[in-house]
Amino acid sequence: MAGRKFAVKAIDWVAFGEIIPQNQKAIANSLKSWNEILSSRLAALSEKPPAIDWAYYKANVATAGLVDDFEKKFNALKIPVPEDKYTALVDVEEKEDVKHCAEFVSQSKIRIQEYEKQLEKMKNMIPFDQMTIEDLNEAFPETKLDMEKYPYWPHKPIENL
After folding, report:
1. CA–CA separation, 73 vs 70, rounded Å?
2. Is the separation of the CB atoms in 145 and 133 below 8 Å?
């Protein structure tokens, strides 16, 4: 009935299973089984509800006019389908999130390249136990002491210690 009127997005259970933590697998399996049960029940429903046999009720209800009143009210009843106000908003938000994710991925790739350069530098460096002070200052310029600007020990501004 409602399953044919509204398009429901299918759930990618394989992708869902990959992103959930191990300790929540049982909850996810329960959710999946409930989804399958409810989806099958929804698919089993007909497009139109079964027709009411008003003649049967008129013959078996003792109060005259009661069934006619119910039939009139039932036929006059129109249940409105709620309007979908949120799908468009969710779609816009999803597009923004995709843009943000793509931007984050591109920035992450740039950071990964920088980190790989630093890692390669570290791999090609002389081992620390074989370094001299000059080698250390060459590899890490921030460790060099400025004895001309700060002639007294610790050769750095005190606020930087």
Report:
1. 5
2. no
pLDDT digits (tens, 9 = 90+) for 98-150: 999 999 999 999 999 999 999 999 999 999 899 998 998 888 888 888 777 77
Cα dihedral 134, 135, 140, 145, rounded to 10, equals -10
> Considering Cα of 133, then 134, then 136, then 140, what sign does the dihedral take?
positive
Provide the terminal-to-terminal Cα distance of the chain, rounded to the nearest Å: 73
- 19, 33, 61, 142, 145 from 25: Cα distances, Å: 10, 12, 54, 49, 56
Collapse the DSSP code of 93 into the 3-class scheme (helix H, G, I; strand E, B; otherwise coil) and give the result. Answer: helix
Cβ count near 109 (within 10 Å): 10
The identity of residue 26, as a single letter, is A
The pTM (predicted TM-score) of the whole model is 0.46
